[in-house]
Specification:
GO molecular function: ABC-type transporter activity; ATP binding; ATP hydrolysis activity; molybdate ion transmembrane transporter activity
Helix content: 10-25%
Number of strands: 21
Oligomer: single chain
Order of helices and strands: EEEHEEEEHHHEHEHEEHEEEEEEEEHEE
CATH class of the largest domain: Alpha Beta
Family: Belongs to the ABC transporter superfamily.
Pfam families: ABC_tran (PF00005), TOBE (PF03459)
InterPro entries: AAA+_ATPase (IPR003593), ABC_transporter-like_ATP-bd (IPR003439), ABC_transporter-like_CS (IPR017871), Mo/tungstate-bd_C_term_dom (IPR008995), ModC_ABC_ATP-bd (IPR011868), Molybdenum_import_ModC (IPR050334), Mop_domain (IPR004606), P-loop_NTPase (IPR027417)
Structural class: alpha+beta
Organism: Allorhizobium borbori
Distance between the termini: 26 Å
CATH architecture of the largest domain: 3-Layer(aba) Sandwich
Number of helices: 8
């Protein structure tokens, strides 16, 4: 299944112009507030009349302003999860879920509800009312109701923004299971590095109504235009844990990585976010220095970013981004094709920096 979008929409002085495609997996729409993310998915859902452009799903035209085609929202087979759960408070969780199954044959409904309840860990909640649920439980029920509508496309508008860090950590695995089990395109709006890094198979970065970067999470964050701070993701496998030092050693394509201790096991594959501002570049390897991580890489790109230069290195296949001042860049004479050493401290492993990945 695939979604193709090419739209232009104006509201007051704001103009949204976006053209992209999304296939199976989770496409994160990232960018600062006011960049047009929610407007974009509301256009896709048919909740806002499109002014100009086309929206196609699997070669079926949902919207074509030149041809005068508009398929109403209820005929688009879309599931939509909002920031708030929006459950019916006067009926049970089971009844809330059943409300979404209008597109499912009656004979298939019990099995489908059982599968989704198991997928999202909400089977014990089925006979409770929404008033007795936690924020995370309510959002899992909202996810279940969207899935039970048998959608061909799932839209999620910052579904975890109202939850605290603990509840977010609890529900992220559920969204991963949806991404991996349902086999449908998912458009997911988020401002969170943690969510995008852990969930996204593809990123579309918006700024002031236009798409400024597309690609995997690594490319979007390295670009510095994803609405987040610039940085890089390094993939590694945990090899050793130093219990008494609060450290662990992981093997990355570019060499050894020392990480702050985290609740992961030896052999676990992880993806680590390294802020570009934390990386120091050097031509040699200083001996008397406290930084534990020292990777060697080839300069593949230099990009101006306000008063700084973003230097992108290829470290054994992983891309590492460093932010240096113009003066430092000129003093080192940094140029594409040169080999430099990248030095940075043991990477913090709070939730914003370390993400477990499937091996």
């Amino acid at each position: 299944m695939s979604l193709l979008v090419d739209v232009t929409h104006r509201h007051g002085e704001f103009t949204l112009g976006a053209a992209f495609s999304a296939a199976d997996g989770l496409t994160a729409l990232s960018g600062p507030s006011g960049s047009g993310k929610t407007t974009l998915i509301n256009l896709i859902a048919g909740l806002i009349p499109l002014q100009k452009g086309r929206i196609l799903f699997d070669d079926r035209v949902w919207n074509d302003t030149d041809a005068g085609i508009f398929v109403p929202p209820h005929r688009r087979r879309i599931g939509y999860v909002f920031q708030e759960a929006r459950l019916f408070p006067h009926v049970s969780v089971r009844a809330n879920l059943a409300y979404g199954m209008g597109n499912v044959a009656k004979a298939e409904r019990p099995a489908r509800m059982a599968r989704v309840a198991d997928l999202l860990r909400i089977a014990p909640l089925l006979d409770r009312r929404p008033s007795g649920l936690s924020g995370g439980e309510k959002q899992r029920v909202a996810l279940g109701r969207a899935l039970l509508s048998a959608p061909e496309l799932l839209l999620m508008d910052e579904p975890l923004s109202a939850l605290d860090a603990g509840l977010k950590a609890d529900i992220l695995p559920d969204i991963e299971r949806i991404r991996d089990a349902e086999g449908i395109p998912i458009l997911y709006i988020s401002h969170s590095i943690e969510e995008v890094a852990r969930l996204a198979t593809h990123v579309v970065a918006l700024e002031a109504g236009r798409i400024v970067a597309t690609g995997g999470p690594e490319a979007a964050f390295a670009s510095g235009v994803s609405g987040q701070r610039s940085g890089s993701f390094l993939t590694a496998v945990v090899a050793e844990i130093f219990e008494g030092e609060g450290l662990m050693l992981a093997h990355a394509p570019g060499g050894k990585l020392y990480l702050r201790a985290a609740p992961v096991a030896i052999g676990q594959s992880v993806r680590v976010f390294v802020p570009a501002a934390d990386v120091v570049l050097a031509r040699g390897l200083p001996e008397a220095i406290s930084t534990l991580n020292r990777l060697s890489g080839i300069v593949v790109n230099l990009r101006e970013d306000k008063n700084s230069i973003l230097v992108e290195l290829d470290c054994g296949g992983d891309r590492l981004c460093a932010e240096v001042t113009r003066r430092s860049s000129e003093r080192l004479g940094i140029a594409p094709g040169e080999r430099l050493n990248a030095l940075f401290k043991a990477v913090r492993t709070e939730p914003e920096n370390l993400y477990r990945q499937k091996i």
